[in-house]
Predict the 3D structure of the following.
Amino acid sequence: MSVAEAEETVLIVGGGPVGLTARALLARWGVRTLLVERHGELSPFPRSRLVNVRSMEIFRSLGLAGQITARAFPPEYGRVRFRDTLRDRDFAAAAMAGVHAPVPESPVTGVVTSQDRLEPVLLGAADTPVRFGVELVGLAEEDSTVVARLADRRSGQETRVRVPYVLAADGANSTVRQLLGIGTTGPGALGKVTTVVFDADLDRWCAGQPAGVYFTAHGSFMPLYPEGGWAWFGPTPEDGAHTDWHELVARALGPGADVRHTVLRVQHWVMNAFVAERLRHGRVLLAGDAVHAVPVIGGLGMNAGLADVHNLCWKLAGVLQGWAGPSLLDTYETERQPVARLTLRQAVANAQLLSTAQSRRREQLQAGGKAAHRVELPWSDRYFAQLGLVLGVTYRSTAVLTDDHTRPEPPVDPRVHASSRADADLATDAHPATNPRSDAEAVPGMEALPATDYVPTPQPGHRMPHLPLTPGRSTLDALGEWFTLFTPDTAAWAPRAAAPWPLRVEALPQGSAEGLGLGPGGALLVRPDGHIAARWTDGPSAPATLFEALAALNGRP
């Protein structure tokens, strides 16, 4: 069989939100791609629901935030409610920080939406080839390239393409990860879950108290679209093949609900919890659920995958376009694998906290408690206030330079922090009920992580703080497919930039510069993914300062 020399430079495997976002990001860099998806169409199921504030910042940079928000629920749905059955009153509720209302740390607000509403927007964000119904069945590295075997699932016909790199975003059951023999660590499968999509008019119980999800003792309910539609999800019954799903939903709605509902679709899936041992195998890089499958509680999984490709795509573009050395790709795993482990710990803790709350309520009901009685939950109203994890991720790698120095930190014991009120909190004060022995043994250090607070900081490795540059324009709006140098003294720095790196110099108002800890000649160098690469508090130390910094962090001496 002949091998086609693909014009495309990156093969993307997987057409979910992570793969589609990678395609859009690479297109913005001018990198051609071919995306293959084993299913014949975009997902018809709601699946992932929450687009958090950091993901909306990414989508804003792609010009997609407006479209996504227009198709999503209004902000008041950024809340979770706890009930005995759907028809009962709340016994607890919690808001999702950065979704239920704006936060001062970002120019955007996250949204509650359904994946089948999000994916068409992402598909239309680039004009590069997409092949549905095509499955990757083989991989081999040859002559500094990757030869991929692709099979058309309808005709069975196989083709082979040779590309410089493969980006695998093919889900928790990743074919690519299995072909490469990459193992995983973590609890693994936490249980089988079923989602039932149905039509019903539930306004009498929900219109006045909107929420993105209603957790009940009989499974959970989610409104699917602003104009209607619902989904129920819960543990798959032992005899799932013979379950009367209509009756199950009726029982979960509550005795005497008397609501006519029509079951439309039923999907069975496994709630996984693991992190891949590697995010890279030669010229193959993995992202999203392929490297970190996490429980859905808290909405962390898809958003972590979007952050993966936001971190990766500018590095791929730099290597392919020649302004970065191949070693820059090593920093992808160094920076993102610790984030994956932190996300796994938090998501598992979220799932365990939810289970604890539901169990406590069932015990109270069995003891004669009334629906109106409030249950003291194992978290405060700030349970979903996870901005420390969403916005506070910090990178430590050779793509981040130490403060006021051009020499990169050595990639020894790479760590990730959440910018919280006290970094030490991240490793302490775990709730005993959230750290069962089996999980702790599976993932060392797994515990509930109170990464709630986010304190902006201009230190290298952190996300660039959101500050107004002009009315309606944020420092985050100055970022793009280039490095951005923020400085109050553009004259001192602009002549010192040099090819081949894409670079823009952005003037900082003096007040903003002082807030970032910069003197009159200071500067912040920000990477295309919005993380600070270097900081000079008092100005360039030599004419070649900026040139040397760009060369060092891009692995191009």
Notes: The chain has 14 helices and 26 strands. Confidence is low (pLDDT under 50) at residues 406-450. The first strand starts at residue 4 and ends at 5.
